[in-house]
Amino acid sequence: MLKKRKIPNATLDRLPLYFKFFKQSEENGVDRVSSREISEALDIDSATIRRDFSYFGELGRKGYGYNVRALVKFFSEQVQGNGIKNVILIGTGNLGSALLNYNFTKIHDKINIAVAFDIDEEIVGSTINGVEVIDISELESVIKEINAEIAILTVPGQVGVELSHDIESYGIKGILNFTPEKLAVSEKVTVHNIDLSVEMQALLFYMKHKY
């Protein structure tokens, strides 16, 4: 159970990294790890790790470290929640298709990409990695039918803006936005923006200034 205090966004951003680390450690048969080992694996300083974990109470013991199995369970609940979350994907072009072919369940076993949408008649009715592609005209009815809470947008920027207001009204609470545009949603919707051009520029910048 989270403490009733505000957790910094930077800490929230690192939770999936911690979860992935503990999950992989468990799969490798590791029983416990130290903050130093986490630090070396994730390139996050130990003080930051201890500060991040302090927001959630006593997760480890001095001289013992962190119990891997217990932390997998804890971060699974914090990152993924307790139930299966249905996700929709809108736009099955090159990027959308690549995401559908990615094995999300390897890391996020409570995330289910239930259905994809497109406007291309040649694609509608097909399946990609077991996910059916449905005509965009059925967007509202399907979101409500499967109680989808999360949408992945891999459409042209302006299309994403036009769709974002609608999908909020249909019940979407979180959006993974691959368009470069600011979406037309209220503060009630959590949006995580992934602009590949910006990420590439950031990579080049860090490469240039690393040494």
CATH topology of the largest domain: Rossmann fold
* Overall domain count: 2
What percent of residues are in strands? 15-25%
Helices and strands, in order, run as HEHHEHEHEEEHEHEEH
**For this structure, what is the CATH class of the largest domain?**
Alpha Beta
Largest sheet: 7 strands, mixed
Family: Belongs to the transcriptional regulatory Rex family.
Domain CoA-binding: 81-182
Function: Modulates transcription in response to changes in cellular NADH/NAD(+) redox state.
Binding site for NAD(+): 91-96
Task: Give an overview of the whole structure.
It is found in: Cytoplasm. Keywords: Cytoplasm, DNA-binding, NAD, Repressor, Transcription, Transcription regulation. The chain has two domains: 9-78, Winged helix-like DNA-binding domain superfamily/Winged helix DNA-binding domain (Arc Repressor Mutant, subunit A), CATH 1.10.10.10; 85-198, NAD(P)-binding Rossmann-like Domain (Rossmann fold), CATH 3.40.50. The mean pLDDT is 85. Helices cover 43% and strands 18% of the residues. It has 211 residues and is an alpha/beta fold. The protein is built from eight helices and nine strands.
